[in-house]
User: Which sequence fits this backbone?
């Protein structure tokens, strides 16, 4: 059996060498080299398991990640926001806050799970009511917009706006990151599709991490504006746009607004969540797409 110099180097090295080596590569290049032979495929799987480990990522903020992921999978909830972007971009190095978006029907179940794990609503006094009562009372007053079918874009972005966020913390030592809870009346993934630009349309749902515009965002470092910034409904998550604007400047991602210029390598046409243009990382990394 003849081994290439690359195979010999990686096989003789430890896990830290593999991680450091592939951290310098673009994701598509990593997956391409894994298709050369079974030895390189196993090495790539080792890297993916360490660098894009969904349970490990969620576990930085929640002590029982599989329990949370199972609930979100069953109820259609999603994890999104800055932490998920940095998970894909391989720049997440420490425990961070998780943004979780759920439909109102899931609220009691998720609050029960977080209560079991010792999470407390930040700023809640707890003298006359429970966090569940306070949130449900506010949610009941949330305007019930007439949502359209999932394949049709709403004229009003308020149809997919979130209520919150409500911030929960587990302990004063901050061993685990905080959880920010966003509540919607539409299917949670539709809230993600209403974001200001394509670079933020990344989520963990259905026990897999999904990036809707991976080639544009992570290969060509471009994020295309897809919504009107001035809409009132955008104010609930303008903090994510602000974060992304700052992050994009730091890592060299261009935010592209309305323009007559035509860009190549853009995921256009009729799109669906989890279609062939998406980057999908399953919870168990034996398979995946980019």
Assistant:
């Amino acid at each position: 059996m003849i081994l290439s110099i690359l195979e010999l180097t990686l096989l003789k090295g430890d896990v830290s060498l593999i991680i450091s080596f592939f951290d310098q590569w673009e994701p598509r290049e990593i997956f391409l080299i894994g298709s050369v032979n079974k030895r390189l495929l196993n090495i790539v799987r080792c890297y993916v398991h360490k660098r894009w480990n969904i349970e490990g990522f969620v576990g930085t903020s929640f002590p029982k990640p599989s329990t949370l992921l199972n609930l979100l999978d069953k109820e259609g909830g999603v994890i999104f926001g800055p932490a998920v972007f940095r998970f894909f971009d391989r720049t997440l190095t420490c425990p961070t806050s998780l943004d979780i978006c759920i439909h109102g029907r899931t609220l009691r179940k998720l609050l029960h799970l977080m209560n079991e794990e010792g999470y407390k609503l930040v700023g809640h006094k707890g003298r006359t009511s429970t966090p569940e009562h306070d949130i449900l009372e506010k949610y009941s007053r949330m305007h019930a917009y007439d949502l359209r079918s999932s394949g049709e874009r709403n004229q009003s972005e308020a149809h997919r706006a979130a209520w919150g966020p409500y911030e929960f913390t587990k302990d004063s030592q901050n061993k685990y990151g905080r959880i920010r809870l966003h509540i919607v009346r539409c299917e949670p993934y539709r809230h993600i599709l209403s974001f200001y630009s394509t670079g933020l349309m990344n989520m963990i749902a259905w026990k897999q991490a999904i990036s809707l515009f991976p080639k544009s965002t992570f290969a060509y470092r471009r994020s295309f504006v897809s919504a009107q910034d001035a809409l009132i409904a955008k104010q609930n998550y303008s903090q994510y746009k602000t974060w992304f604007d700052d992050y994009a400047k730091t890592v060299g991602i261009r935010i592209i607004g309305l323009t007559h210029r035509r860009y190549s390598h853009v995921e256009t046409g009729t799109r669906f969540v989890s279609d062939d243009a998406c980057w999908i990382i399953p919870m168990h990394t034996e398979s995946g797409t980019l």
